[in-house]
Amino acid sequence: MGKHYPEEFKMQVVKDYLSGTKHNEVIRKYCIGRTRLQKWTKQYKDTGRCEDRSGKNNKGASRPRKVDPETMTREEYIQYLEMENDILKQLSSLNSSRQK
User: Is the pTM of this model over 0.85?
Assistant: First the structure.
């Protein structure tokens, strides 16, 4: 299970990044990953908040969301395709090990 950060911390990180602090500096300063910073920043830009989605009201969080490649940035699309390829490789590996 991943780490959970309070909304206040997430907001502080995102505001620091949006105020002009370089991406790598924010990552080092707050000891978070690049993907996490991107996720929080997108969430903040979309909703104006960085909600804590942990807890009992988080039903279906692990379900895949419907993906619209036309609304993704180039980096998001590349990341999505890499993830999709990894999943297909894992399925292929599982199928080949079952057939033996």
Answer: no
